[in-house]
Specification:
147 residues, alpha+beta, four-stranded antiparallel sheet, 2 helices, disordered N terminus
């Protein structure tokens, strides 16, 4: 009986290890973890916040902040690319830009949500991490890869 319980525990641990590996390598979901940027060039952008953000952008962020989102706002010769990761249970999260690339038809934004470290002191109230990129207006579709 003891032998059987150890096999069961090993089976559950093995299953958990495989599931964790699948999640970490991106086997779940229909989006790739990243993509090839061979045909793309870097996009020049500035990360903005506070008074540099148009009022309409702030309004939309407030409406969308509970869930993950990505949108653009164009104002003359300026384009704002805005994306967020939705509600997180604590503070301390940050966003790491992985890529901001473009080709003739699209702009690709790839970013990762970075959780606080285990020893980091964080606020116990929910947070809503998001980022706003400001760049020259380009009449291109914007694709988001957020993970």
């Amino acid at each position: 009986m003891k032998y059987k319980a150890n096999i069961c525990r090993l089976g559950i641990r093995g299953l958990l290890a495989v599931l964790m590996l699948m999640v970490l390598t991106g086997c779940f979901g229909n989006k790739p973890v990243s993509r090839s940027y061979a045909d793309m060039t870097d996009v020049t952008y500035e990360i903005i916040s506070g008074s540099d953000v148009p009022h309409k952008v702030n309004e939309k962020i407030f409406k969308e902040k509970e869930k993950g989102f990505g949108f653009t706002y164009r104002d003359g010769d300026v384009m704002y690319i805005v994306f967020g990761f939705g509600r997180q249970n604590t503070g301390g999260f940050s966003i790491q830009m992985a890529a901001a690339k473009e080709n003739d038809s699209e702009i690709l934004i790839e970013a990762r949500l970075v959780a606080p470290g285990p020893e980091e002191v964080v606020a116990t109230t929910p947070s809503y991490p998001y980022m706003i990129l400001k760049m020259a207006n380009a009449e291109k579709d914007v694709q988001f890869l957020l993970h």
